[in-house]
Amino acid sequence: MDQRMGCVIILGFGFMLLFTAFQTMGNIEQTVINSIKIDEPTFQGDGYTSLAVIYALLSISNWLTPSVLSKIGPKIAMLLGALTYCLFILTFLWPQTWLLYVASAVLGTGAALIWTGQGMYLSKCSDESTISRNSGIFWALLQMSMFFGNLFVFFLFQGKTHIDNDTRTLVFSILAGVAIIGIVFLGALRKPNQPSITVDDEMPEHQQSPKQAFINAVRLFMTKRMLQLSVTFIYTGLALSFFSGVYGASIGFTEAIGESAKQLVGLNGVFLGVGEVLGGVIFGLLGKRTAKWGRDPIVIAGFIIHISSFFLILMNIPNAAPFGDTDDVAFFKPPIAAVAILCSFLLGLGDACFNTQIYSMLGGVFAKNSAEAFSIFKFTQSVATAISFVYSSHLGLRVQLGILLVFGILGTACFCLVEWAVKRSRAVDVNECETVDTKK
Prior knowledge:
Belongs to the unc-93 family. It is a multi-pass membrane protein. This is UNC93-like protein MFSD11. The chain has helices at about 5-40, 45-60, 65-90, 95-125, 130-145, 145-155, 165-185, 210-220, 225-255, 260-285, 285-295, 295-315, 335-365, 370-390, 395-440. By secondary structure, the chain is mainly alpha-helical. The two termini are about 40 Å apart.
């Protein structure tokens, strides 16, 4: 195993531990907040609003991160961002409305640092032939975070219709401890040996001034390919808010499922992770073939998987489920717990299809501007996620699924257009090289 592969694995483990804490937190946040309001009536926080604040600040901060990374580099950026995740979790040990939203805003800023730093670091560990493999490996390790925290919550919440203070304290303390271990892994990252054939060697990113990094990000955003990809980024943001905040809560609020409804919130996160990890492992193993065949078949497969899950959710979960506990039912009477968990798996698998190929596209095609490309990705995705969390508390499940369907079609089509343009460009370059060789 070469040094760059080792860096990818350490990076993946660091993110796995950090997001074991945070993704579990996001999955149970609305359910836990509802219980806090019962125990402490002065607390008026809202999980959807908190997540909206996080992603709103994340979207704004992404325009500044290329400038920051040009000064401090990806490792320090990731460490600073990771600390804000730990701080957010710890604030739930002292639930205060104002503190929830302040911590959410700080986390949004830190998230921009950690994700842009991660994308830049992963790009530096890869070249065109290894970016798909490395993206798949990182994604599989990252999404293993969905297993451990959510399994812990699944067993801890067993038989509970109300999450009491002692249970909440135990959960948040353990999750904060896991996040700290993840920060230790990120601190152990070394500077990767640069690939000998990447475009980054022609124009090292550290030579850019903060002002130039910002200008380059704006220019890159206005290119035709990036504008098309932005539609795909928007879809991943809408899907992210749905499966990370809305769907799990909707399962827990569907009382017709039975006494296990709250417990299924944790199991939902586990099977989301199963789908995410399976997708990452498959695309990591098929990295070389993906580079040969192209990314579009995988994204199309992800779209089909998501459409199937949306249909089953429509049939199984009542329209009022995102708003709170409800006795309503949908077309399946009563709702089927196994179908709800199957949809969790399909949502995770489809998301892995989209995100691994987006990482491959940005880290390979846009290697020269990796920090700018990943900041644009997170900016666009975060704007969509924030908007989605705002309307999630006002729109019924059916309207939300309709929005996902429309943007899923548009996002898949736009990604395929960019991928086909890249293939044509490479074919022209190959033909020109062959022509030159013939003349010689």
